[in-house]
Amino acid sequence: MKPFIEVTKPKQTMLLLVTFIVAYIVASDNINLIHFVISFSAVALAISGTTAINMVFDYDIDKIMRRTSVRPLPSGRLDKKTCLLYGFTLLVIGIIIGYVINPLFAYLLFLGFFIDILIYTILLKRKTPLSIIIGGIAGAIPSLAGWVAACGYISLEGILLASIVFLWIPSHIWYLAMYYYEDFKKAKIPAMPIVAGMQKTSWMIVLSASAMLVVTASTAFFLSFNVYLMILISMIAIYFIVKSLKFAINPSKDNAMHMFKLANITLFALYMAIFLSRVIV
């Protein structure tokens, strides 16, 4: 049973589900608990299924990389056919449940799979460092799906909220690639730190984080947050920018894992602060 849980990357999946939950709550006028649970189940299944399918296509590079060699497939605890069937089963069930909520919601779940697996993982990940742009779109879809599940349509506010995730993705991927530089190089994955170097990539992250601040502030403005929450959200983003700036001035592999963890905490903190906008009147 454990390998089936591991191939869904529970920690990563839970972080993406947080973005869905917050977007759903922010977009809702009145929350229907049954509707929320059904929507949540659809997204959780779709993300888990997509992640499991991704494990199949990354099997060969996971065997090479020390960090991923202990995953269920490369370690032999789960075979590829079983994992693929498992992933597609979760994905299809998730999309079908999503269609019950509304067709646009189901379409977004399918789009997340299509972009993440076919475009990012299969076509671009091993060919260009710019694949992160496509990966960022896939990562932002759970948030947008939360908005659509709640109100049934895509709006500027929903796009801005999802864009926070899109602009966060480079820090999530690139700091990890810096720490596991040798693994990525050995597996011949052209992540930006491998192609452009650690320092240039670090400055790209600073730019991305700065853009994230602008988008976060814009989200708060369009959603009419009170001034105290606007300050809180801005301080969270600014703190991450300052830390990213210090790292960019003196980048090191040893500190890259700390920055990777900080990036994850930052996204969670931003979305929790946005969640407070619907709790605190």
Automatic annotation (TrEMBL):
It comes from Geoglobus ahangari. It catalyses: heme b + (2E,6E)-farnesyl diphosphate + H2O = Fe(II)-heme o + diphosphate. It is found in: Cell membrane. Converts heme B (protoheme IX) to heme O by substitution of the vinyl group on carbon 2 of heme B porphyrin ring with a hydroxyethyl farnesyl side group. Its EC number is 2.5.1.141. This is Protoheme IX farnesyltransferase. The chain crosses the membrane at residues 12-27, 33-57, 83-101, 107-123, 130-155, 161-181, 202-222, 228-249, 261-280. The keyword Translocase does not apply. It is an enzyme of class 2 (transferase). The gene is cyoE. Carbon 2 of the heme B porphyrin ring is defined according to the Fischer nomenclature. GO terms for molecular function: protoheme IX farnesyltransferase activity. GO terms for cellular component: plasma membrane. Keywords: Cell membrane, Heme biosynthesis, Membrane, Transferase, Transmembrane, Transmembrane helix. It comes from the Archaea. It is a multi-pass membrane protein. Gene3D superfamilies: UbiA prenyltransferase. Belongs to the UbiA prenyltransferase family. Protoheme IX farnesyltransferase subfamily. GO terms for biological process: heme O biosynthetic process. Pathway: Porphyrin-containing compound metabolism; heme O biosynthesis; heme O from protoheme: step 1/1. It holds the Pfam family UbiA.
